[in-house]
Design brief:
With 372 residues, the chain is of the alpha+beta class. The chain is built from 10 helices and 5 strands. It starts with a helix and ends with a strand. Bound molecules: guanosine-5'-triphosphate (GTP). Pfam families: GGDEF.
Amino acid sequence: MIRSPGFRLRLGLTLGFATLFAVCVLAAWTYMSEAGRHLGADYPALTGDIVRAQAETADLRLALEDLAREPGDARHRERVETLLWLMPERMDAIRRVLARTELAEAGQVDVLDALRRTEDRLATLEASLTPPDAQLEAIGQALEADLAWAYSSLLDRVHRAAAAQQRLMKRLSIAVGTLIGLVLMVAGALMLALARLHRQWRRLSELSVTDPLTGLANRRRLWDLARHHLARHRRDGGELALLLIDLDHFKAVNDRFGHPAGDAALQAFAEMLRSLIRGPDLVARLGGEEFAVLLPDSGLPAARRLGERLRRATAALDLPPPADGHVLTASLGLSATRAGAHDMERLYALADAGLYRAKQGGRNRLEINEAS
Ligand SMILES: Nc1nc2c(ncn2[C@@H]2O[C@H](COP(=O)(O)OP(=O)(O)OP(=O)(O)O)[C@@H](O)[C@H]2O)c(=O)[nH]1
């Protein structure tokens, strides 16, 4: 089956965008689910808690040793009591932070069990303080040994999890950077496509109002501009003139020198017209060998002067070879709004009637057709 280039372009664009969209969604989903597992994992805070808990464990052992050595010293008892209150609180804090990390899922049963067991032993330890148990020193050492294992093993896992979190963050920032790059690329490509479309649209609209042989404005552009200025003059009372120009016996140029020579003569004539008009005036080719000049801000006298100048310049025009030496003449019809023409159809009809009279009157002349 034959597919048009437009169909292939649309298909390619759709597939490209669908693939890009799928890749983005997949990447976003993967990273979001992985990031979700790390959400709330405050590893630095957890590390701080564990290190403090380790220090408190050593403190408890020392305080218990001191109390065993000097059972009557109230400061030692007070220190032990403070640590017995502080340590379970610390364990609670560690458990709470742990529950918000992926470590909770990874099976910390052994460590949590050790903490729970130690907590129970800390609760019963208080009862052994009055009077101080003879085994206090040994109890302190056993507690420290148990907790040292639990805390150092936990610290090790936290360090590994923190490293994994850092790797994830690095990958996330690369993914976000890539995504932003892709979005910028797509936006850039769209902007370029839009700019290209806009250029093409402008070129098309330019072509739709341009005569292809001479590059002059065409009938449509002349009509649009004339209507615009007529509307303006209806408000400000200004004057507008229209010159119609028809080359005389142009058929003879084609017959004598051939159609391409006729084309070249038309182009030379168009160039001459363009070079003789002022800025606001517009030259158009209406078709064949018929041209027009719109003078948006001129009355009959100025338009007549220009018409005469154009007529003389036509007769003096050097045509390109092989038609060089051939004398081209033009007949012109002129009308202006002052003469009573207030719409383009009326203005054109009056100028055309003037042109008809110029042809009838022997050609190579300008006739003004004023409204009665
Ligand atoms: N080479 C060339 N000739 C064109 C073009 N358009 C129209 N013509 C020719 O212009 C000639 C116009 O002929 P007519 O309408 O009989 O008018 P004319 O020979 O100029 O005579 P009058 O207008 O009566 O003075 C025809 O031979 C057309 O073929 C064009 O684009 N290129």
